[in-house]
Write a structure and sequence with these properties.
With 907 residues, the chain is of the alpha/beta class. Helices cover 45% and strands 15% of the residues. It is built from 32 helices and 28 strands. It has an eight-stranded mixed β-sheet with strand order 15-16-14-17-20-13-22-21, with helices on both faces. It has a six-stranded parallel β-sheet with strand order 5-2-8-9-1-10, with helices on both faces. Strands 23, 24, 25, 26, 27 and 28 form a six-stranded mixed β-sheet that branches. The longest helix is centred in the C-terminal third of the chain and has 24 residues.
């Protein structure tokens, strides 16, 4: 295998086009060469570029460094005729063509269909549920495995299913949990394969069949008779099964040449493995790396060289051999360019620092615009959508035009869910979807009317009697839903059946674009029936990476680094270099082909290795972000209290971090900004002709220290805690999602109030069904429940030792609401538990904190104490229960009174 390293901007596609022209001139027909790349868009571009090169050679005799000799003209004329039918496709596309070529030998129908991954998952879920249902029978061979995994079995096995591109055969050690997972997965997967038969293949199964094909001697000979050479682009992004396929092709005698850049391997979350490229680089024939960039200006190129050489020398993401020095060539040789690094430092909450950081970035972009750079030639990249939301706010505040190219949560957007509920109601007008339909644009009933209908024993009859026009809309919907999914959607979206209006008439521009995108998606891959479409929408709404359609308009483009791969802008901003790499361990990993559950001894070692790979990929993500800039690169980061996190580590290693010397040159700026609170909003200028002032203009409301209604926990947050902004389900709606720690605390408190047990699967499933769990993926829910279970177990272990048993309490009031008027403020809250045991009243508050700091809760407990005294006339013992540490801390009454007087001095 021949291998070439090509850094960002060095012309990988141009090198492939040149290689095609070279092969054609050497009498190798275009039809005998397979061109393979990562995306359909890249494959289409390669086809166009090859065609343009062939036409230019035939027309002028020159293209790139090729000169057409007259005896070669027939070769290129033939190539032009073959271009439309030539194999220029994606990795899966090439595997599919190869399998169709030898389908009968592989037991496949040559016209087999390729399933979408969402359909494959839906089918696998059905087979898995049937296996788990049968395994409930004690005489079933999988009963022990099912019983061992309990209610978490389905989620765990689906997690394994999503990682099936990592290995052809799943194995496990002899631990009971790992064995149970493997047995149940294998059983479900066998049924899944039977269901696929010879006519259906999802992407991962295409990979598995392709590897089996290489082991068939006759199939390989047929394939080699069709192709003489395979050219593979973006080889750093292949997964282990794809890598094994190309290695097997090479070993079978089909010449393979690959090009890629390990520094840009950033798709580990899609099971990509940079180790595949590294093995090819170590074993194969190394071609000269591409080292001439026509993308980057001089200073940007030098900065990137400094970045890659420094990171490579420190094993931060890639090695020396993977980071050749790159030179600027072409038009960019005459462009000096600029690099700017801006750090915001201070001891304030990190959210405040990032707010200032976003403002600094907006100001720099505004300045660059005044220097002649168009906003439409600018982009801001961030690792997360939360970061982009902060940039969006700063750009909006500065009045700069922007467009969010890929926001999260498309399939959770209100307009998409409206259509989902309308389709559901068309099938069966009942349940949650019926209520949502009645409340939404299709019926537009208020809450009271909807509630009345849903409580009725005969809701459809009542709807027909009271709201005949709405009932007719419902009947029209039910009639059209009996047709194809596409026709049903067209009716719901475009038919003016809502008092003469169409559904889209109720939508803003962005929402209309989202609805149109749904139509196009369904038209491209039409499901067989409405139920399949609804399953698809349900599945996609649970996937965090299902994105929003691009917004229209022009301005500064906002997108994540992953979405920016392969793109470039004259001015590129990289925001939030100080954000930590998220550390979210999965419940089960597939590592080196083995299934490893988090409760098994091998998990820590596997997690450590996977975490190390994630950290390496994080630094490669930084390189991808920085290398998108053509002329100007602006990078910003925030560092609280001198702590260095995230990508700032890389810049510190480069001696360009917040602690480095400042620079101010036309081509390079390094500046540290000390935090300054935002100024108060300026008043509007007075009108030109003033009216006489009202008599009450100088009167003022008296200012009180606390609002009319408040809570002790709010005061505690102001004095002791800082919070980063949480992600939003939708930037326009502003609905805030609960953080993980908040969710854990909420579930633990609720479970304790209900006297639920950590060892009761029904109780745990009830917790999973709570609304605060909805924003999280199944894996995240499982991880949260595991922590909740541990905290509940700690609580149960305290009963009858540190705490009185529940059955020994003469009075017991969990989750007791309270309100205490003090001066001009009413303090409201929920007392976790008030009970009496052995004649002693006890006020108890449960904490899931990571550290024991009782002083943070003195005022809160003091308010509860005063409320109980006033209402019940008793003075209870007050104690905090720190569940992580299984420690009960009793608070003296004197300490609480001091905290109360300090926070609420006499008026």
């Amino acid at each position: 295998m021949k291998v070439r390293v090509a850094s960002a901007g060095t012309g990988k596609t141009t090198s492939l086009v040149s290689r095609y022209l070279e092969l054609i001139s050497c009498d190798i027909p275009l039809r005998r060469v397979a061109g393979v790349t990562f995306t359909r868009a890249a494959a289409d571009e390669l086809r166009q570029r090859v065609g343009a090169g062939v036409r230019e050679l035939l027309k002028t005799g020159q293209y790139l460094h090729h000169t057409l000799r007259e005896q070669q003209r027939p070769n290129f004329e033939e190539a032009l005729r073959e271009l439309d039918g030539a194999t220029l496709t994606t990795i899966h596309g090439f595997m599919i063509e190869s399998l169709r070529l030898v389908a009968p030998m592989m037991g496949l129908d040559p016209d087999f269909s390729v399933l979408g991954e969402w359909e494959a998952q839906a089918m696998f879920e059905e087979e898995l549920r049937s296996v788990l249902y049968l395994a409930n029978e004690p005489t079933h061979g999988l009963f022990r495995a099912k019983y061992h995994l309990g209610e978490s079995a389905e989620d765990l096995i689906l997690n394994v299913f999503h990682q099936r591109s990592l290995t052809e055969v799943f194995e496990s050690d002899d631990h009971a949990t790992n064995l149970a997972l493997q047995k149940l997965f294998d059983a479900a997967y066998r049924k899944f394969e039977v269901r696929l038969g010879a006519v259906l293949l999802p992407p991962s199964e295409v990979e598995r069949r392709a590897i089996k094909m290489i082991r068939n001697k006759n199939a390989v000979e047929r394939l080699i008779s069709r192709y003489k050479l395979v050219l593979v682009d973006e080889f750093q992004d292949v997964n282990p099964l794809q890598g094994a396929y190309f290695e097997a092709l090479e070993n079978a005698g089909l010449a393979t040449e690959v090009v890629g850049d390990p520094k840009q391997s950033i798709y580990g979350f899609r099971n990509a493995d940079v180790g595949v490229f590294r093995r090819a680089l170590a074993r194969g024939e190394k071609l000269e790396p591409l080292t001439h960039t026509r993308r980057h200006a001089l200073v940007v190129s030098r900065f990137l060289n400094h970045m890659t050489s420094t990171l490579a020398a420190n094993n931060m993401g890639f090695g020396i051999e993977e980071a050749p020095i790159v030179e600027t060539k072409g038009e960019q040789e005459n462009t000096q360019g600029r690099v700017e690094l801006h750090w915001v430092v201070g001891d304030e909450p990190i959210a405040d620092l990032r707010q200032m950081e976003a403002k600094v970035l907006a100001e720099r972009l505004q300045q660059l615009h005044s220097e002649g750079y168009s906003y439409s030639n600018m982009a801001v990249l961030a690792r997360s959508y939360a970061g982009l939301a902060q940039v969006e706010e700063a750009l909006l505040g500065a009045g700069l035009p922007y467009v969010m190219l890929q926001g999260r949560g498309y399939y959770e957007r209100l307009e998409v869910r409206d259509l989902y509920h309308a389709l559901r109601v068309g099938i069966e007008p009942s349940g949650f979807s019926f209520g949502a339909w009645l409340r939404g644009p299709f019926a537009q009933l208020d809450f009271l009317k909807v509630d009345e209908l849903l409580k009725s024993a005969t809701p459809l009859e009542d709807l027909k009697e009271k709201y005949k026009d709405i009932w007719e809309r419902l009947e029209g919907t039910r009639q059209h839903v009996r047709g194809t999914p596409l026709s049903a959607l067209k009716f719901l979206i475009r038919e003016p059946f809502i008092d003469g209006k169409r559904y889209v008439d109720f939508l803003e521009t962005r929402a209309r674009e989202n609805v149109d995108a749904l139509l196009f998606t369904v038209a491209e891959q039409p499901p067989g029936d409405i139920e399949l479409l609804l399953d698809r929408l349900d599945l996609l709404s649970r996937q965090a990476d299902a994105g929003d359609v691009p917004q229209s308009g022009e301005g500064i483009e906002l997108l994540t680094v992953h979405k920016a791969k392969g793109l470039e802008w004259k001015v590129t901003g990289v925001f939030d270099l100080g954000r930590k790499l998220a550390d979210r361990a999965q419940a089960v990993y597939v590592h080196d082909g083995r299934i490893i559950h988090k409760d098994t001894p091998a998990f820590d070692e596997a997690r450590s290795k996977i975490r190390s790979r994630e950290e390496e990929e994080s630094y490669r993500l930084l390189y991808v972000a920085a290398s998108r800039a053509r002329d100007v690169l602006v990078m910003t980061g925030s560092a609280k209290g001198g702590r260095v996190d995230g990508w700032i580590n890389a810049l510190e290693t480069m001696k360009l971090g917040p602690s480095s010397k400042s620079y101010s040159r036309p081509d390079f700026i390094l500046q540290t900004h000390f935090y300054q609170p935002p100024p108060p909003s300026s008043l509007l200028p007075p009108p030109s002709s003033l009216l006489p002032p009202s008599p009450w203009i100088d009167k003022r409301f008296r200012h009180y220290e606390h609002p009319p209604v408040s809570s002790p926990s709010r005061l505690k947050q102001e004095h002791h805690e800082t919070f980063e902004p949480l992600p939003f389900s939708d930037p326009e709606e502003g609905e805030r999602l609960p953080g993980r720690s908040t969710t854990v605390g909420t579930l633990v408190h609720y479970a304790i109030s209900q006297n639920w047990s950590a060892n009761n699967p029904v109780h745990l499933e009830n917790l999973r069904a709570q609304e605060v769990m909805f924003p999280f993926t199944p894996d995240e829910q499982l991880d949260i429940l595991t922590e909740v279970k541990e905290l509940l177990s700690n609580y149960e272990s305290l009963l009858e030792s540190e705490l009185p048993a529940l059955n020994k309490r003469s009075n017991d009031f969990p989750e007791l609401p309270m309100a205490l008027p003090v001066g001009k403020t009413v303090w409201q809250g929920i007392i976790d538990r008030l009970y009496r045991a052995d004649g002693q009243w006890v006020l108890e508050d449960y904490k899931t904190d990571q550290e024991i700091k009782p002083e943070h809760y003195y005022f809160q407990l003091a308010v509860y104490l005063h409320a109980i005294r006033e209402v019940r006339g008793v003075t209870p013992k007050v104690q905090l229960v720190f569940l992580r540490f299984k420690e009960v801390v009793v608070i003296e009454e004197r300490v609480l009174e001091e905290a109360y007087k300090k926070a609420l001095p006499p008026l």
